[in-house]
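Entry for the shared binder. Reason: the reviewer on the internal report wants the predicted structure included alongside the sequence.
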Amino acid sequence: MDTVARVRRICLALPEATERLSHGAPTFFVRERKSFTKYVVGSYGEPGPTLWCPAAPGVQDELVDAEPERFFVPPYVGPSGWIGLRLDVDPDWAEIAETVRQSYRLVAPKKLAALLDA
């Protein structure tokens, strides 16, 4: 399965998640409003596919400091605390799925986020 298909499967399995292009990249939304993951391929100087996801306060610095070969501060949304994940560096799909779920929790209404625990 190719990378975008794996990302799509993870994202669209979440409650009321949808996909549409945003700035030319597949982007995943909760209730077609708030984005929780963006799949970016070879743009903005990145060597391969990446995911951009919102993160809880402090997580961006922690991940980028711990593993700068895998995590980075993406342009435009980085100042808002989003993290970038490089998918061309031995991706751990269980970790990626958990990162996407955590991003979803940050932007989803509480009732939808609670469905992840059910």
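Summary line for the report: The longest strand covers residues 34-41.
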